Amino acid sequence: MNTILRRASAVAAAALLVVAGDPASAEAQPFDALSPQVQSFVDVSTPHVLIENALLIDGTGAPARAGMDVLVSEGRIAAVGPTGSIAPPAGIADDDLTRVDASGHTLIPGLVMLHEHMFYPSGQARYNTNEVSFPPLYLAGGVTTMRTGGSLDTYSDLSTKRLIEAGSVVGPHMDVTGPYLEGRGGFIRSFPELETPEEARAHVDFWADRGVTSFKAYNLITREVLGAAIEAAHARGIKVTGHLCSITYREAADLGIDNLEHGFFAATDWVADKGPDQCPRGAGDTYLELDLEGRAFLDVVDHLIENDVALTSTLNVVERQAEGRPLPPDGAAAAMLPELREGVMRRAAGRGTPRGTALIRRYMDMEKIFFDRGGMLVVGTDPTGAGDVVPGYANQRSVQLLIEMGLGVEQAVMVATLNGATYLERADEIGSVEVGKVADLVLMRGDLLSDAEALRAMTLVFKDGVGYSSPRLFEEGTTGWVGVR
């Protein structure tokens, strides 16, 4: 690792701080309470850390600042200031303070990603839960908080969350979404089939009682059933998102939905012959024909904004429909189960078409207009699709795609950090580098302002003030198992 850590020999015995229980908790665990597996990925374990001389992009959207120090104390950000201006905490011995030389590095908040999954496609509409490989991959890619954008194995997801919070498993904090809110005829056998408002309310209450903190509606649900689900979820203080088709974005906003997935490429608002509660074909053609300066599009955009509906960008999962797009990094390919890797990479290399190229650019333009008009844009990766979207690697790529969309670097970081935290109603604790907040931070080699490839060079990922080695998480935690466990 190129980041220089100046530590005394006693660091190995220092206490390691990590959040336990509720993700909003500020309670810490001693180092010896963590499993040996979690301990093995930690490079910075002292309770006090001074990160020196970084290029700081703080997540608020403010201009980046060069030559900045950040002091972490007891898992929280204690001070932020120009290099040399921050004194170590009074009475702290040198052995209890780690100094991180961040010269030539960029420091950003931990990523808050809102369309992640714990499952992965293994063929024939079968999706395996990857509770072993995915959590370390997410953390390696800078994700310190994530929401699962739909669950096929909710008991496993809830157990994984509990194990992470207990310090038994390495990974980000998790907001767990319950089983999908879907109607009859869903394409995955494990989808529920909710056909009445009573079934929807019972579904929401059952899973809320078991600890899920989000819900997601899917393609074939009806307005009546979705409305009942939203009402039941809101009564429990839980938000609802949707990957919709049978219901338009305007209709969903009127029902009170909180979030819509995949930018606008799941919207059916502009399909001329769409019937009520029917999922039409060919919606993609309407995007290419749509005048993005006309009222047909802008009225939907403004309606979402007026109703406080957030939009999740998930360009990763459709990127390789376009020509000339980069393949997944070598590490992402190596992480896949060998029996799946060849087919995934072959399909990824051959998917691009001129139409796909035009569609990707159109998706980006639509999301940028939503953002520019004041919409709450958040981001996620959706590691499903054709299998080429691998957690961690894809999270880094998602920020690059926001920059390609036309956002400034500081804006792209804000979308991937503070906006996600704001949506989860945790912006007072996470999402930006500000005094008093939890020390969730990502240090990467290079100048992110001038080179988006710096996102591929993460060195340390701080979660609750504990510095994990990104390269070691990528190299040792996951190789060859994505797709099966």
UniProtKB/TrEMBL annotation:
Keywords: Signal. The keyword Ribonucleoprotein does not apply. SUPFAM superfamilies: Composite domain of metallo-dependent hydrolases, Metallo-dependent hydrolases. Residues 107-454 form the Amidohydrolase-related domain. Residues 1-28 form the signal peptide. It comes from the Bacteria. InterPro entries: Amidohydro-rel, Metal-dep_hydrolase_composite, Metal_Hydrolase, Metallo-dep_Hydrolase. This is Amidohydrolase family protein. It comes from Gaopeijia maritima.
